[in-house]
Amino acid sequence: MGNMPTISRRRFIVSSAAFGGGMALGIVDADAAFLAQQPWASGDGLAGSELNPWISIGADDIVVVRVATPEIGNGCMTQTPMLVAEELACDWNKIRAEFAPPSRDFRQDGVYSNGGGPIGYFSGRSTSPERMKLMLQMGASARERLKAAAAAEWKVPAAEISAKDSVLTHVPTGRTLRYGEVAGKAGTIRLAEEPAPKPQSEWTLLGKASPAKLNIPQIVNGSAIYGMDVRVPGMAYAALRQSPVHGGRIRSFDAEKAKSMPGVLAVVTVDPDEPRGLKIKSDAPFGYADTGVRAAVAVVAEHYWQARKALDTVQVDWDDRAGAQWKTTAQMVDACIAALEKPADKVEGQSGDVKLLDRQEHLVEATYVTPFCDQAPMEPLNGTALVTADKVEVWHPAQQSKQAFWVAADESGMDPSKVTFHQTFIGGAFGRRIFADDLRMVVAIAKKFPGRPVHTIWSREEQTRQGKYRPLVAAKLKAGLDKTGLPAVLVVNQASKGHFPRLADNPYFLGCVPNVLVDYRELPFHVVTGAYRGPGYNSYVFMVESFIDECALKVGMDPLDYRLKLLAKWPDSGWTKVLREVADKAGWGKDLPKGMGQGIAISNWGMNGKPEAGTTVGVVATIEVTKSGILKVHQLDAAFDCGRVVNHDAVLNLAQGGIIFGLNMALNEEVNVKDGRMVEGNFDQYPILRTGDTPQINIHFGGLSGHDRFAELGEPPAGPVGPAIANAIFGITGKRIRSTPIRKHDLSWA
Amino acid sequence: MPYDLTVNGQSHSIDADPSTPLLWVLRDHLGMTGTKYGCGIAQCGACTVHLDGTPTRSCQVPLESAAGASVTTIEGLTPDSSHILQQLWVELNVPQCGYCQSGMLMAAAALLERIPNPTDADIDAYVDNLCRCGTYPRVRAAIHKAASGSKV
Q1: Confidence check on the interface: ipTM exceeds 0.90, yes or no
Q2: Which of A15, A424, A465, A680 has the fewest beta carbons closer than 10 A?
Q3: Which of B37, B99, B128 sits opposite A690 (nearest CB)?
Q4: Mean pLDDT, residues B103-117 taken together
Q5: Residues 120 to 139 of B: which have CB under 8 A from any A CB?
Q6: Does A217 touch chain B (CB under 8 A)?
Q7: Do A692 and B124 touch (CB under 8 A)?
Q8: Could you tell me the pLDDT band of residue A26, with boundaries at 50, 70 and 90?
Q9: Mean pLDDT of the region B39-56
Q10: A741 preceded by cis ω (within 30°)?
Q11: Do A600 and A639 meet the contact criterion of CB atoms below 8 Å apart?
């Protein structure tokens, strides 16, 4: 990426002033290298000949595939083209991917988001049934139109033509045409009947190949454009500071010094109470309820460091409001635990008669707590927006492009037909960038400084303290074990704020235990909560899978056998297959030296109440705890069942990463509250594991059931790591860990 | 007063506040965005560059201290992505989101310069960058593979 000459920036400013805000939409006078590297579509139409809204082919045979799912590291920018290539029979090296523009989606009746509702433009689920079906069909249709075009050219039946590696061959005569030679004509052809995609048994790419991800060449030379890397002409930078107590407001502020500092262009405020909003029916997939801005001061300057330094001099008198009542995290935990004794707000799962609890042979009861956690993506929140009198243009690392598009329209008050959205690469998301509350803040600042693009950057401290956290959850679990030792009654009372009702989505509560009740209470905390890798799941799996171990040990049964017996009734053999596979590969039950031990746990993300759905993951942790209490995780073995696999290495990569994420979540992560304010700000206080902290990780494919589904691997592995470790800790130390992060516990033993 | 800085062999004269971290000079004054901002306190390593050959967290180097130095960034590691680590990063599908990987590559390249055949302990010590996606097993595998390849 070349330099941005100062002269062109000046020229831009002059011309934009001359147009009086009526500047044409699109990048004006932009750096050519920047344009060449952009991952977003340059306009509604595709380069080359468009065979359908997803696929175009140029005269040079280059196939452009539009991808609606933003790339958060899960490989979906590569997976979608693989689905297309399987049917299109093109040369994989000719494939280019670009993000599908929400503006066309808006103008053309949801052309890119119809494949799955809120999931349509969502960063995950690239192998969901809807998406696979759609992209395979698009590839097949494009191929048949290429064949039809060649057939017309040669005046032969299309049935005599084969397609392979971007070449069409008339089989009887051996004549050939490249895709690029007939793409123009193919784009005009209407097929009498759309072809049926081939059966899985005939796949040659899916399930067979794991090509290098398409965006890695740009990553390794630094040219991939993340939200943070957007550099458009005339761009100014903003640094922001939001109310340190979530929900607070600005009482007054003094920015006189900042305004006189070098490079400072403006000091602006963002007020959540200001009237805002677009007066038309919204098509935002997740609505606007989770997109609110926070009270903030931002300094806009020519350079980021100027903005940052000037912001440090701004004095703000904050009105902390209701959040200030929460003096400590402990006070909030106590409030959750106290709420557990009160009537529930909602029942999320119920069957049988839980009044039978007291009539069982054994009673087991325990209270568990999981803390607020920040997604902590490596790329801090940021975004770029240009607001003028009649246009809005944004460049953003959104986890749901369509959501972000609508939020940009809503915050600016601009009709969506005048909003242009450019999807950048994303430096990690883990749920933080789903709702586009970040983009609302970016636009809220930019609209106070109209006429120039404003690139707003959250400092790491701002990112961590202004979170949308995994909720703090407390739960009381009660089990009545019958004569066989298995639970006949299972009751879970939960209390949290921003609760995700997912706990009952588990075989134990869906038939394996005859009498169950799962309920929850919502607390009025001020701390903003949201999605985090595996919403709800990331918390309850620790609780439930630790508690199941408590039940097993209460009756002296092996935790693996206990789970196998408990899950025997569940009509999805993938669960027991996963357990057996991971136990076998990890050497479950083998002799280990004193101070070492193993723990096991199993869970499923995405089943939505059904067997043979979602992805089941089993983990065995092999750990050591010294007598002084130092924990060393030696090895994590994982087996899984997502049904089938279309990309072995992509699955392996996500499983490895998900296991490490789950490990860090369990060992290290928590965000605390003091006097209403969030305490932890940067990685010195919010530790993340490094290479040297990472144990041996073994991912085993022998748990796959072969059931006809290709469920996701991003979220599922994060669940069972923590409880497997906690269960192993109990075996070594006799100490039951009922809260995370585990690093806060004294693990010493005698 | 402008400061002279050589970046990837090209000399620049930069007129900026002397306290401006090298990270922001590269990203914002020179438009070289391969070097990433992650934390600003030398914890994460996403901003790692080579400063006169030494792997350095550029968020901690004010412009006035970097003046006169020669800086190599990810954009200048090679002109054509031909470094063995860059090639192996592609071959082994190392990155996930990729945001930390510029720094990861610069740290790993510096390690191989010093220790052509590093042990696991060497990797742990020299490549201590943060990766939230958890690419560590592949980073380690790629460095080992590069080391074995460089002996051939």
Answers
A1: yes
A2: A15
A3: B128
A4: 97
A5: 121, 123-125, 127-139
A6: yes
A7: yes
A8: very low
A9: 98
A10: yes
A11: no
Q: Could B33 and A210 be called an inter-chain contact, meaning their C-beta atoms sit closer than 8 Å?
A: no
What proportion of chain A, given as a percentage, has pLDDT over 90? 92
pLDDT tier at A37, thresholds 50, 70, 90: confident
Q: What pLDDT does residue A35 have?
A: 65
Q: Which of B47, B131, B126, B119 is nearest to B95 (CA)?
A: B131
CB neighbours (10 Å) of residue A211?
Answer: 17
Contact assessment for residue A242 and residue A316, using Cβ atoms and an 8 Å cutoff: no
Determine contact: A697 vs chain B, CB below 8 A.
Answer: yes
User: Residue A123 half-sphere exposure, CB side, CA atoms within 13 Å?
Assistant: 31
Q: What is the pLDDT of residues A357-369, one digit of tens each?
A: 999 999 999 999 9
What's the confidence (pLDDT) of residue A115? 66
* CB pair distance less than 8 Å for B81 and A217: yes
Q: Are strands B3-7 and A264-270 parallel, antiparallel or unpaired?
A: unpaired
B141 touches chain A (CB under 8 A): no
> Which amino acid appears at position A499 of this protein?
H
Sort out which chain A residues have CB atoms less than 8 A from B146's CB and list them: none
Cβ–Cβ contact B16 with A under 8 A: yes
- pLDDT level of residue A116 (50, 70, 90 thresholds): low
Selection from A86, A67, A62 nearest residue A139 by Cα:
A86
Task: Among A71, A378, A665, A713, pick the best mutation site for testing chain B contact (most B Cβ within 10 A).
Answer: A378
CA distance A608 to A128: 14
Query: Among the residues of A292-395, which ranges form H helices?
Result: 304-312, 329-339
Residue type for position A9 = R
CA A283 to chain centre: 21
Provide the pLDDT for residue A29. Answer: 40
For position A516, what pLDDT does the model report?
98
Percent of residues in chain B assigned helix, strand, coil, to nearest 5? 40, 15, 45
pLDDT value for A127: 87
Contact with chain A for residue B76, Cβ under 8 A? no
Q: How many CB atoms lie within 10 A of CB A589?
A: 11
Q: A52 — phi, psi (to 5°)?
A: -165, 175
- The chain B residue lying nearest A715, using CA atoms, is B133
pLDDT of residue A33: 64
Which of A220, A425, A688 lies nearest to residue B89, judging by beta carbons? A220
CB contact under 8 Å between B28 and A425, yes or no, is: no
Q: Which of residues 296-335 of A touch B (CB under 8 A)?
A: 303-306, 309
Q: What is the pLDDT of residue A502?
A: 96
Q: Given this model, what pLDDT does residue A124 score?
A: 83
A392-396 and A419-423 as β-strands: parallel, antiparallel, unpaired? parallel
Cβ atoms A238, A455 nearer than 8 A: yes
Measure Cα distances from B84 to A454, B80, B141, B148 in Å. Answer: 38, 11, 13, 11
Distance of CA B120 to the CA centre of its chain: 20
Closest chain A C-alpha to B45 CA, distance in angstroms: 10
Q: What is the pLDDT of residue A238?
A: 98
Under 8 Å between Cβ of A462 and A241:
yes
Band of pLDDT at residue A120, cut at 50, 70 and 90: confident
Tell me the CA distances in angstroms from B1 to A260, A518, B64, B68, one per residue in order: 19, 67, 10, 14
Helix/strand/coil (H/E/C) assignment for every residue in A607-657? CCCCCCCCEEEEEEEEEEECCCCCEEEEEEEEEEECECCCCHHHHHHHHHH
* Residue type present at position A115: G
Take residue A531 and report the two structure tokens written for it: 């999605």
